[in-house]
Amino acid sequence: MSGTPDARPSPVQSVDRAVTVLEVLAELGEAGVTEISQRLDVHKSTAFRLVTALEARGLVEQVGDRGKYRLGLAVVRLAGAVSDQLDVTRRARPACEELAATTGETVNVALPDGDAAINVDQVRGSSTVAARNWVGERTPLHATSSGKVLMAFCPPVRAAGLAGRLRRFTDATTTRRRDLEEALDKIAVDGFAATREELEVGLNAVAAPVRGADGEVVAALSVSGPSHRLTAERLREITPAVVAAADRASAALGRRV
Questions:
Q1: What's the domain of life for this entry (predicted)?
Q2: Is the entire prediction scored with pTM above 0.85?
Q3: Which residues pair with 125 in a beta bridge?
């Protein structure tokens, strides 16, 4: 172990060390600064600074006056957020599978992620043998059906989506803030959002909101596919099925109509 304090670690190195502190405490249950410094192979003063920073954010806490630290309650909050996301994926899966079988197209579930929507689950239909895997991808709120649904029904998401520049992805992308706001107001009334080649040329989609037990929108469920199959007419045809699937997913999350 180094006998002197580390010289100005890079921000990335500091983040890596902070994560390692959390991993050490998760493994050991509790540990003192000396033990943490040994596990990280850093000077005690460096370990103390890391622990102090994590303590200030509630990620670690002291165990009485014994000089020991353990994971803090903020870790529980973060883990709970991930658990909620996984719960949405698990409970919505049957509705997604049924919808994919009915439409033959790709079905995705997306959650809000700051100024974007992140796809957390995907079911491929019979027509989508070579479909793109969207899971884990962050997509722009203003240029996707899922993003527009989340903006229309979740005020914080709407504010995040309207805060920055509305990037143009294709000629069909809505880039005027007033036009987007009018579209979102209509989506809130209609209960669904459809996009035609707004994110990618040749890609169309329609999405509906998924609500939690408290009635708040927690996700968007969408069907997407190539424009030669999901024509404007076909989008209108499958929209009731998409809304019904989203309602079934909401019921699985405890939503009562």
A1: Bacteria
A2: no
A3: none
